[in-house]
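Much of what follows relies on a compact textual record of a protein's fold. Each token is a code from a learned vocabulary of local backbone shapes. The record below shows the convention in full.
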Amino acid sequence: MSALGIIHRFAPRGVLVFLSVLGRPLRTVLKWQVYVTFGLALVAGFLWGVHGVLSTLLGGLVNFTAGLAYGWMVSRGKGAAAEDALRKMIRAEGVKILLIVVQLWLVLSLYKDLVVPGFLFAFVVTVLTFAAAFAVRDD
């Protein structure tokens, strides 16, 4: 069964509707972030054990959730003018940055056994992956 088949089988209907509203580039990049995060978590498991896996997953999750929030904010409503679209994108970027800062603070202050190299590496790689959305065409 493919990853999409698993999502369609087990995800709540609201999640599927939400993901269908997001544009193809954003859906693709979020999928890439999940693949990269799990790949890095596998490597971190060999290097640092269970805490390495959890730290790496948290590093990827920070950007994944911020990317979801960004996509939700950008996809809401219909902006007729370019000014409205730009305003919406700037607000969404602000919310994304705020979420990242809050989540970084929470993880760094609450998870005492955090493997910082794994966490930060996953965080940086998923940031770069999100930036690759510009390379994905919206056909």
User: Anything to note?
Assistant: The CA atoms of residues 41 and 53 lie 5 Å apart. The longest helix spans residues 82-110. The mean pLDDT is 84. The chain has one domain: 11-133.
